[in-house]
Records
---
Amino acid sequence: MRHRLAAPLAFVLACSGEIDEPTGTPTPGPNGPPLTCDVPTVPSGPIRRLTRDQYDLTVRDLLGDTTTPARAFPADDDSEGFYVGGQASSLHVEQWAAAAEALAERATMDLEALVPCDVAAASCVDTFLEDFATRAYRRPATAAEVGRLRAVFDVGFENGGFVNGAKLVVQTVLQSPNFLYHVELAPEGETEGAIVPVEDYALASRLSYFLWASMPDATLLEAAAEGRLRTEEGLLEEARRMLADEDRARFGTRSFYRQWLKLQGIPNLQKNDELYPLFSRDVAVALQTSLELFLDEVFQSGDIEQLYTSNVGYVNATIAPIFGLDAADFGTDFERVTLDPARRAGLVTHPAIMALLGKSNQSDPIHRAVFVRQSLLCQHLPPPPADLTITAPDPAPGLSTRERFAEHSSNPSCAGCHRLLDGVGFGFEHYDAIGAWRDEDGGRAVDATGEVHGTFDMDGPYDGAIELAQRLAGSDQARECVAKQVFRFALQRVELQADACSLRQVETRFEESGYRLQDLMLAVVASDAFRFQRVQP
């Protein structure tokens, strides 16, 4: 993998006048400029609260509650497309309290599931308090914490017995910062700014919320207690065990790629009924499932080439016509099938992605190009001038999308940006607004040729999305972008200059693995940025 800090971008990206070039360069890797990486270097990390997804999965694993109460919480903050738990508002506090009350009410309806002992035994109260607080706080509860919870329990017990005491304890714990936040305290006495290993239990939580999007299990907490996570070998052993649990690992993987690719918008897609009678909400939901089954397979056992070039698909009768297949050959269950390699290649030509990036009444070359630039190549595109009104030209009889968009590229105020975007977006013109293949558009033969500009190793003319997908599969810039996206998701923050050595570690291991995606996740786990922290005041 070749790495460069910068490269000439020989084009003007302004829609009028001169504006900044797009940013987003590969990080320096094994063949790039020298870095001094003898000791760990990591930036200061902000304290994060649980995201809505993490909250819901945590109460599922802690209480067995699948009501997903966090769906009603305020939206999470956005960091380069990934959800992060930022500052809490007064609304958060109110809704946390309401959720805690409802969750506690349901949890105490089944004391046997909640309490790990006989409630009639004298020692059961303290056993329950220590066990529940330890699981909820993701580290051993201190004697002082258990003592305070005992006082809470006693108040409830006096007014309703064991059930009410347990109910007040659950409410209290679910509103504690130790539950709601990713608490990562450095050892006492360490110098501010020093780089130290992440504490054992905090590291266990980092691992579980990255790979499972939820709290550590008993086995992981035991590994933390025994100090087995302090070595890279021990940490990776646990990571491999967790990834081998496909059911739970799927939650972490899907959390990553749903955010990376913005898949949460697919079920709500709406298309023009007259132009696209095949499309419906059921079709949209089935398309998302199809894509996720494909991505599950690739992230479990595949590599970057399969991600971008595989002609494997998951199809049922609902969406078979969009894939150009006969619905009569399928049932309601999804079948793994081999698709026409001249029409389908991995992620970028999947109908779910094409429909997501299409308008209600036509294809959308601009947003398809933006997706490739920003999500797959990690480039930041400059915004158009504020005084420029941008509207997609309406479909017109006898004109293809390419012809209708020609004004954008010929208009001097738009030509710069559209030279960058059109050359990528027009490559997808064989796919209509719902992702179905077409040979004609507006009565004209589809022209899916394009030319890529402004990348590090993908520039040049090409013909069609299949060829563009093959370029992505072989591009160092695209590989590094995937590595960077996983890094951002795992650390819940954007990479900074202090992460340069860690990113080099990740990219090197990714390359050495043959660009296997599960090995990429392990490479992030083994990185200094994941295992170390900077001491803050």
Note: The mean pLDDT is 91.
---
Amino acid sequence: MIHVSKLTRFTCIGMLSATMLTACSDNDDNANGLGSLTPEEQAFGKATGNFTAEEWYPGGELGTTEKASYSAPAPAVTNIAGMEEDFIVGEGFFEKLYTFEQEPRKGLGPAWVRNSCIACHPSYGHGKRQTEYRANQIGNGYLLVIYHPDNNAYISEVTGMPQTQAMSPFKAPIDESQISIEWKNVTEMESGLPMKFEDGEEYALIYPEVTIPQSAFNTNPKPTNYEVRLESTIGIYGTGLLDALNDEDIEAQWSAESNYVELNPAMWDKEAGTFKPSAYYSAGYNDTGSHRGNHGPLKRFTYAMTRGTLQDGAGANAIWNITNVTRSDRHFLYTTLAWAKAQSEDTEVIQYIKEHGASPFSLLHPYYADGTDEGIAARVNEILSCSSIAKKETFDNYLFNGAPYNGQDEMSDKQYYQFMVWHRGLAVPAARNLNDAQVQRGKELFSQMGCAQCHRPSWKTGSDNMWVDAATKAYAQSIGKNAADMLPKYPNQTIWPYTDMVQHRLFMKNDIRTGWCRTTPLWGRGLSRQLTGADDRLHDCRARTVLEAIMWHGYSKLSDGYKATEKFFHLKKKDRDAVVKFIEAI
């Protein structure tokens, strides 16, 4: 059983004195002056109703903070001398703006998605619903998903995370002023569920239609036969704990669910009853010393489950491709050949470089070449085409963003390591109001309706013998240490993320690309309105409240969540409110 004394008491309930902290573990509350505390303060960390003591700590002893915060370091960080300093430095790479030349966050461009990470993770949480696409609008967590509807493949003319910003005189791959987001109302549920509960309370659902005209693409060729969707960022706290789950345990969950629901055939071999090779991140990332065996790590991150380890997961990938900042394992640009070709053929671009790129101190000097129109065009195409490992040697021969390449990347291995200490070290906020009778009723109903089949309440982490990326290994080797011992670890923790780590389909109007989406963890989301100013949910923020998110699960009878939503629909208002209150408490 977890007692309050086992964690530093960063309380979101109220700041307690050291004397009160000691008293919290005493049975005689009144004798120790606790009679003045609120009922929740007295109940915190103790079994109450249908909640165990451990459920106050969704991230376990090593991964929970008692601060009302998405940005606090986990005890796994603060318990180790010196690691908190690296955590704070790494935090700066997330929170502060990247620039063209200024250390330590230099290298932005030549095209990019955002100039900071926190812009799309407000207060480290879920992105906010937007009515227009503006990349640097704080809270805009949207990424544009532009794909061919016949095969769901991303278009090749722009990057997978499409860029709407570029360094002058280059023109952004997509002119964001031409992007349209129109929010539409659902007039009726495809499943037949009424838009009014049986007691008369109404609810409303909205969804986005996003269009980008071909004229918005500054590429050659321009894309054809494409559709656009939005995907918003989710909270990044607690991802280190999900990384610590054993592949075998996740596979067992998929196997169990395959008995009663269809699973993504791109990931799961139904006949063999196991994962397909495509479910593993990459055979090229073998680490035979890992618990993950003789294959790459099992995919578990992003809506589409494209990433298999936090060390090369969504955040590790984004610190490179969102800002286009290079590092030792990715010393090449995040660009496309179609954009490079278009810029090399743009007379305005060539003329501007001709007029402003002659000086060796100019950011444009790498593109100046011999100063002729033909030479500049060829050099622009050559540098902007350096978008793969195959082009690395070519890219290294050029000046970039005003500084000669001398073996040092724009983000050093140490800086990347510090970023990963921060990323893996973010704690999950403690649960709230578990002693509330309505919250306890909500938990009971959540299970009875079948919500917990997908939003599995708890897991236990393994030994957390983590896979480690090349850049972190390189830094560890440079200081004579073992990389796996230098990052926050969460071995043998019982955690409460409320996700089954499985992809499901909800068959919503204007659904997510492919229709398959990993069950989003619910832990800590109840603090969203307090911390970010919004409670928007689901992959494109179409749900403005918890209730709307629930009802979207029942839009279609084909939805994996329909039966549970139907049961929710028939609840009395008091019980519906209890379910919502429970979800906001965990």
Note: The longest strand covers residues 142-147.
---
Amino acid sequence: MVANVKQTRLILAGLLLGILMSAMDNTIVATAMGTIVADLGGLDKFVWVTSAYMVAVMAGMPIFGKLSDMYGRKRFYVFGLIVFLFGSALCGLAQSIVQLSLFRAIQGIGGGALMPIAFTIVFDIFPPEKRGRMTGLLGSVFGTSSVLGPLLGAYLTEYISWHWIFYVNLPIGIVSLFLILRHYKESGQTSKQRIDWWGAVTLVVAVVCLMFALELGGKQFAWDSGAIIGLFGGFAVFFIGFLIAETKAAEPIISFWMFRRRLFASSQALAFLYGATFVILTVYIPIFVQAVYGGSATNAGFILTPMMLGSVAGSAVGGVFTNRTSFRNLMIVSVFAYAIGMGLLALLTPDTARSLLTLYMIIAGFGVGFSFSLLPTASIHNLEMRHRGSANSTNSFFRSLGMTLGITVFGTIQSKLFASKLQASLGGTEGQGPGSGLVNLGDPRELFTPEKRAQIPSAMLDQIVDAMSGSITYMFLLALIPIALSVVAVFLMGNERVTVKKPGGENPGSAGSRG
């Protein structure tokens, strides 16, 4: 139990630092990847740097969430933080791309514990009337990380060294570790049961197969190659094995009975759909700015600031009003703001004013920001303390899965459409025809550096810009399909809301609300 307000604030500060550090890790690394490959080599293996981290994170989330329910939050948050910092230090020392990939997997094991357990600790230490504001704050940090990561990565890589994109985690993580160790005291209310080893093994193998299939498909191997088909087949086999194991386990890692609750099931669907669409905004708006408007890579990162501010505002509003109306009412505001923002972004052209792009991003960011605070809260609503870790980690898992599938599916569509438009306008394909030698279809960021831009004839540049603009905006238009499905999920949430305990009475809406 937390002793006083000062301790509570220090614990919250420690959790915020941990979330910021782990959430921005992938974006900060993606920004520096070109420099890392140039230094370490291994162009044919660089995909493993991201894949290894994501596989470890996604496989670890539900497992650590369940273990925190069984044996306590603090020990697994501290474990995750130490492993993450150890992996970060090793990554900074890596001498080859293979070493870096292995060390990133170690990082990912720690990262899989940090995010879901941090949110769960907040629900344990704060009463219902304060949880909305606190989760809004944590959600704001999550949204901020998607913008801060690329900016920090670009700055450190350009002015110091790519090694520091990993070393920068050490001071942040050490402060977080100190604050949690010193000030967070658990109540001791844990529920020790047998560990679901079969469920853990089959889930990890299924996630590994799926992630590698998505990461390698269309890049290292063709989608219809034996390797990719085999990976998808492995995913299907082990996922079915996981489902069977979970139905027989006394304490399954993912409790399927939770999905019989409308609010929980719809929250997981929304986490998946929002993750799948928000990730394409954070990746492709900077590319649009750099490729279509002609901005530098650093300026392209700064252009996301309005969306970050919008998401922070949305997360805060969602948190403040959690106690005043139902989850569904708030998510209705969220999904319609998100749909309007995405629809406006789909109308972008090379002639669209930058001020309008800024406005569109604020609207989209505001809409998606609600999900950062509301969906974790909805996932644990009315659940006892011993189930919160599992519920929250499941929500984080579905959001991460959505992001992974989203960037794979939408990214494939964008690159194919860009190549098709370019072929139609220039009368050639990559490696042949008029655009040969100038156009690298696989790396638009490289293509639109100021140096490369200056080498392209103006008439040809206009056609390339139009092809890039059209391919990205078409992707934003397609993103309205999962957002439309989000509308359905929102209306399935029901009328549940957070109920605050009245003086001298019980709190029917939050069983086991205090840790």
Note: The mean pLDDT is 80.
